[in-house]
Every structure is written in structure tokens, then in C-alpha cells.
Amino acid sequence: METALYLVMNVLRVYSVYLLVNVFIEKKEINNRLIVMAYAAFYAVNSLFYLVYNSTVINIATNVIPIFLITFLYKAKIGKRIFVTVLVYAISMLVESVVFIIFNALNINRIIINSGFASDIIMFFIAVFIQSIVKGKFKTFSSVKAIYYIVIVFLPIGSIAIGHFAMRDRGLKTLVVASILLLIDFLVFYFFNEISDSYKYKYEASLLQMQNEIQLANYNEISKNYQESQKIIHDIKKHLYTLSQLSSINKEKADNYRKIIEKSMDSLIIGFHCTNQILSIVMSQKISVAESEGIRVETNVEDLSLDFVDDLDITAIFANLWDNAIEACKCISQKDRFIRVIMAKKNNMVVICFENSFNGIVNKKNNMVISSKNSKSGIGFSILSTVAQKYDGLLFTEHSMNVFKTELTLNSVN
User: Fold this and answer.
1) Mean pLDDT score of the chain, rounded to an integer?
2) 338-346 and 296-301: which strand pairing?
3) Whole-number Å distance between alpha carbons of 284 and 299
4) Cβ atoms of 379 and 363 closer than 8 Å
5) How far is CA 177 from the centre of its chain?
6) Residue 381 CB partners (closer than 8 Å, separation 6+)
7) Is residue 409 within 8 Å of 345, Cβ to Cβ?
8) Which of 298, 241, 296, 236 is nearest to 265 (CA)?
9) Mind listing the pLDDT tens digit for each residue in 113-145?
10) Confidence of residue 374 (pLDDT cuts 50, 70, 90)
11) How many Å from the N-terminal Cα to the C-terminal Cα in the chain?
12) Angle at 408 between CA 348 and CA 338, to 5 degrees
């Protein structure tokens, strides 16, 4: 029965190796069947030699050599192949050693140790945990992260505890319980990945919608400016003739008339320009919205390269910062409204700072600033915090009696 249990659990260990190898090196564009066949061969060779010889040297060889050969199905140089092979095997050996020492000291059922039941379950969870960190599963939403931490801690412990009590009977019951627990572990992480991806897609969809709305508003503004420019261009000859006549009759009136023409021309120019098209659109549209609310806007924005930031994240950062600042300003009288935007680079960090006037009331929930509108419930700051984490940066807020400051840093070296 112990042999049968080992064969069942070794499936989980080989799958864990697959997860770890996929974390550290990228697969070539090959048929997935070849990948499956390679890992199936690894399972067969490893299991066979372990059961027949049960030698430490042979066990090491039947782990290291197949893993190294499998890496040739991936894109990597020889040095990295060796490194990944050693790293994956080292993780496996470390888990087995720690489990043996701890469980042996606690006098846990020997079949749990000898069959690899406990070590293989723990290795699987470690592999999924590492994959989640490297591939950014934790950078989606904090609610998913909390769920993940609960699962990653309690599921392996629960599986091993159930196995410990079930394996007092070394009959068919033990094998059935182990197989069911193995299936449960796979299903739980399958559904977790699905949920995590759905949060990610929902998050990206909301940003796309926000970006589309901003672009539509910007295009409407461009269309409006185009129509206004057509009127001015149509009348430009008349304006120039009138100006030339006034300059010979009354210079003061001519200067005033020239200022009126210049003001009309200035109104056609979109409020903000930089090399990043998305940032130009977002800034221009939000500046227009702010000024329509009677808010004084000051910008001191360096024309930095933001190539390391996704377009959706640029929208998320600036649209949310602008919306928060505009909403805060709308709560006070027009004469006191202002928004100051600063963006600069300090060493490898891009620093984005928004300062705005507000009514002095700060609403917080779980130490996070939230909107005064119940419908938003702090989503804006939650998104900003998520983006800051994604680029190894920080989100910082402070306030005085009537000025609120939000500072976001992004690491340009990733």
C-alpha cells in the first residue's frame, strides 16, 4: 500500500517540478504533447528506479538528469539550465529534509513520511506560491491576496492532518483518501487561478472603459476645437483687415483687438502635450474638466519616458488622481479651488505628486483614504496602491488643514 501511495503522490511532485521549471525559464513553441510525454517519462524513470533500487545516488541521478534534459524544451542558455535544475532539485530536497526532521520529531505516522505524502503536498503548495509571486498573482487585488494566504497556509496543513488520521488503516482506504486529497488540491488551485484571472480581467476592463471614456471626451474636445478653428480661419482675413485699419487709427484699440484674436487662437490649443500620447490625452481631458469646475490648475510635469508603464496603468494612475483631486475641490468654494501636478524623476524612481485644496475632512476605512461618495468606497486609492506595488513603488498621502497631497512612486528599473 505504501508503494501505491508513493506512485500516486509522485504525480504531484512531478507536477510541482513542472510548475517550478515554468517559473524560471520560458517554454519553446513546441507541441504540448511533447511536454506531457517528457514529464511522463520523468515520472516513470524516477518512480521505477526509486522502487527497484532505493539508492541515494540513483535517486539523485534519476531526478537531476531528467530535469536537466527537460530544460532543453525551454529557451535558456546552458548555464541557466544547470542553475534551474539544481535550484528545483534543491527545493525538493529541502522540503523532504525539513518534513522528515519535523514529522519524525512529532512522531507522525511513518507512512506519511516514507510515501512522500506530506513532502509532496508541501512542495506543490510552495511551487504554486512561487509561481504566484513571480507571475504577479499578488498584484491584482488585495482581497484575492487575503484569500490566497488563507488557502496557502490551511489547505496543505488540513490535507496532511486528514491523511495522518486516515493512514492508520493501511488498506485501500488510505489510497482512496490520498487520491481524493490530491484531486482537491488540484481543483482548489485551479479555481483560485480562475478567480484571480477574473479579477484581473475585470480590473483591466474597467480601466479600458475609463480610457475609452477619456479618449472619447478628448476627441469631442478636438472636434469642438476644429469647428471653432474653422470659424476663426474663415474670418481671419476680416480680422487682419480690421486690425490693420485700427492700427493706423487707434493703436490702443488695435492692441486690444489683437489680444482678443490671440485669446481665440489660444483657446484652440489642447491644454497639455508630452511625448506619451496616453498621458497627453488623460491630462488634457482632466485639465479641461477641472477648469470647467472653476479649479485653478498648475502643472510642472517633466517630459519623461514612461515606456516601462503599461498604457492602462498610466490611465489608472492619472485618471484616479485627477478624479480624487477634482472631487475634493468641488466640496469647497470656487475661489479656494486648486490642483497642482508635479512629475519628476529622482534616481530610478518616477515621482508623481498631486496637491489639491479640500474641506479638511478625511474619510478612512482600514487605514485607506476613501471617497466622500459612498459609491466609490476607496476603489480609486485601492487601484493606485495596486499599481504602485506592481512597479515596486509606494503610495503616500498627507494633509494639512486645507491641502491634501498624494504622492506615487514608480521604479523605472524592473
Assistant:
1) 78
2) parallel
3) 11
4) no
5) 37
6) 320, 324, 368, 369, 370, 395, 397
7) no
8) 236
9) 666 777 888 888 888 888 777 765 444 444 455
10) very low
11) 50
12) 125
CB atoms within 10 A of CB 30: 11
Beta bridge partners of 301: 343
Domain boundaries, the chain: 2-207, 273-414
Half-sphere exposure for 130 (CA within 13 Å, toward CB): 18
Q: Convert the chain into a string of H (helix), E (strand) and C (coil).
A: CHHHHHHHHHHHHHHHHHHHHHHHCEECCCCHHHHHHHHHHHHHHHHHHHHHCCCHHHHHHHHHHHHHHHHHHEECCHHHHHHHHHHHHHHHHHHHHHHHHHHHHCCCCHHHHHCCHHHHHHHHHHHHHHHHHHCCHHHCCHHHHHHHHHHHHHHHHHHHHHHHHHCCCCCHHHHHHHHHHHHHHHHHHHHHHHHHHHHHHHHHHHHHHHHHHHHHHHHHHHHHHHHHHHHHHHHHHHHHHHHHHHHHHCHHHHHHHHHHHHHHHHCCCCCCCCCCHHHHHHHHHHHHHHHHCCCEEEEEECCCCCCCCCHHHHHHHHHHHHHHHHHHHCCCCHHHCEEEEEEEEECCEEEEEEEEECCCCCCEECCEECCCCCCCCCHHHHHHHHHHHHCCCCEEEEECCCEEEEEEEEECCC
Which amino acid belongs to residue 45? V
The b-or-e profile of 292-322 (16+ CB within 10 A means b, else e) is: eeebebeeeeeebebeebebbbbbbbbbbbb
69-71-77-83 Cα dihedral, nearest 10 degrees: -90
Cα–Cα distance, 341 to 297 (Å, whole number): 8
Please compute the mean of the pLDDT values over residues 185-200 and round it to a whole number. 72
Domain 273-414 has CATH 1.20.1600.10: no
Percent pLDDT > 70 in the chain is 71
And the C-alpha cell for 73? 524544451
Phi, psi (degrees; rounded to nearest 5) at 236:
-65, -35
pLDDT-based confidence at residue 100 (cuts at 50, 70, 90): confident
pLDDT mean over 20-38: 85
The reported pLDDT for the residue numbered 376 is 44
